[in-house]
Structures are given as C-alpha cells and as structure tokens.
Amino acid sequence: MVEPKYLQIENELKEEILSGQFQYADKFYSEKELKEKFNVSSITVIRSVKDLVKAGYLVRYQGKGTFVSHSPHQRLVRFKELNLFPQKDGAVKEDIKVISLEKEDDPSINFELGINKNTYHYHLIQVRSVNDVPFLYYQAYFAPKFINHNKIKDLQTNFQNIYVRIRQDSNIYLLDEPFKEKDSIVKASSEVAQALGLKEGDYVVKQEKKIVSSKNSEVLLYMVNYKKLDYTEVSFTTPDYPEI
Length: 244
Description:
Layout: H1 5-18, H2 31-38, H3 42-54, E1 58-61, E2 65-68, H4 71-74, E3 78-83, E4 94-104, H5 107-113, E5 121-130, E6 133-142, H6 155-158, H7 162-170, E7 179-187, H8 190-196, E8 203-212, E9 219-228, E10 232-237
Antiparallel strand pairs: 1-2, 3-10, 4-5, 5-6, 6-9, 7-8, 8-9
Helix pairs in contact: 1-3, 2-3
C-alpha cells in the first residue's frame, strides 16, 4: 500500500529534526516553504505539521511561527542501573533461589504478553540474595513456546537465568531486543514483604519491563520485580558526556 503524501512528508521532516539539521528552539519551515519544498497543497503540509506538533517535535506560536521543541525531552541518554551490595568481610556472594515455575491463565498477564486469553503462560518466581540477605523478588512471565519443557524437571539448575534459558531453547538473545521499562516506588504487598524480609507496606522499587521481538513486535518476556530501596542506584548520561 502506498504511504499517504502527508505521512511521507511528516517522516522526512521528522528525520531532519532527529538527524540534527535543526537544534532546539530553531525556527522551522514556514507553510509556504513546505509547499514549495514538497510541491503539495497547504492542506497536506498543515496536516503533517499538526502531527509533528502533537508528537512533541514542534511547537507553534500564534503570529511567530513554528519552532523545534524535540531536543530537550527526546535527547538520547544512557541509562545505568547498579545493584548496591554492602560488602561483608570484603566479599560479595549473590544467590538465586527459584521459588516456582507455574502454568497460569491470568487474563491481565495474557494481555501483556499478547496471547489468547484462553491459553496459559508460565510464571517464574525467584528470590535473589546477597550475602544471604534477600534484595530482589523476581517475576518473569512468558509464552510456553519459548522454552524446552523437559528442562522444567530441574528448576534450580535450568531456570537460574531466564535470558539464558530462552536463548538456548529458542535462539533468541533477549539483551539485543527492544524493551520498555518503568520503575516506580510502591508499598510492598504481604507476599513481597515476606520474601524480602520486610514489613508489609514498606517501600520498594517496582520494576516493570517488557521485551519484544525486533522482527514482529511479539512480546518475548514480561517482568514485574520488586527490589529493596537501599540496593538500587540509577544514573543517566548523554552519549557525549566525557568519561572520567
């Protein structure tokens, strides 16, 4: 199917903004300039510009013109998450205990995984500890097709790392696939509190992450983890920040 002209123009203008041809607060093309640039009608360029304004790439000021607004809130940054492990006698020993791997048919999880509501998914639960102190309650959800079911017989050996399991069974390298993560501070439920040695209602970091296939956007893994506050540190830097 042929892409509509307004969308072709929109994508080309977006590429100009993202490639650095415009900086933050630069004045953008006028309607007349866009009509001449693409040899189209006012209606077409107005629709393209409206979409870019709605998406946050441009901002329009009555009587002044259109300006680039993309840079401040869309600039590429590097995200780094660190596990802060208090040292004990100069050594750090991290352990992973697989609590369970169950078949479930929770409709809300099936929705997140993009699978039929009448089928089932796997729910993997782990507790991760450092120096025998639990710090992370780990939950991973995934469709049955991604693992070799014969491996379920020995959970402690075969499900220490679900990334490795899926790579070995389905030849999918999850670390190279697109993902979206949202971190928030929440109160621990009784289940989470018990697993982490906390009081119900204590604050923890909730980490919700979804990994999808770069080929077809299929959901490969959905995770909902809870981490103790004092074991977490995050940093954000722009790629051009000098390493010290």
